[in-house]
Amino acid sequence: MGERKGTNKYYPPDFDPRVHRSLDAYHGTHALRERAKKIGQGVIVIRFEMPYNIWCGGCGRHVAMGVRYNAEKKKVGMYYSTPVYEFNMKCHLCDQRYLIRTDPANFDYVIVSGARRKEQRWIQQRMVKSRRRTARQSVA
Ligand SMILES: [Zn+2]
């Protein structure tokens, strides 16, 4: 919807580009409309996709990887020069809220509160095994 409204190029007769600068400024709105409702607090609403399987902390039900939420995105810190973002969203099955943060140090997401991760980091385990194998070969 925001995209459709953003393409409206009607300039009212009393529009003065030197005074109003842009149509958004004339209407007193942000280009991202209702997604930028809390922009003053540094919060923007984005579409967040669950990066792995989790169990909700409120209803205990399983939420699959790939389920999408309208999440409030906020910058909460820095990891060297990389910003750390926090996403706040509501469970689609109950009133529980999830708080998930990016983890640039491990190229991952961490659950701060509201849910429990289903441990499925197979690739990492395989890498550990292969590393052990190569260590054994180098000894022999
Ligand atoms: Zn839930």
TrEMBL record:
Annotated InterPro entries: Saf4/Yju2
GO cellular component, one term: post-mRNA release spliceosomal complex
Highest taxon in the source lineage: Eukaryota
Example of a GO biological process term: mRNA splicing, via spliceosome
One Pfam family per UniProt: Saf4_Yju2
PANTHER family reported in the protein's UniProt record: SPLICING FACTOR YJU2, SPLICING FACTOR YJU2B-RELATED
Sequence similarity: Belongs to the CWC16 family.
Protein name, entry field: DUF572 domain-containing protein
Organism per entry: Macrostomum lignano
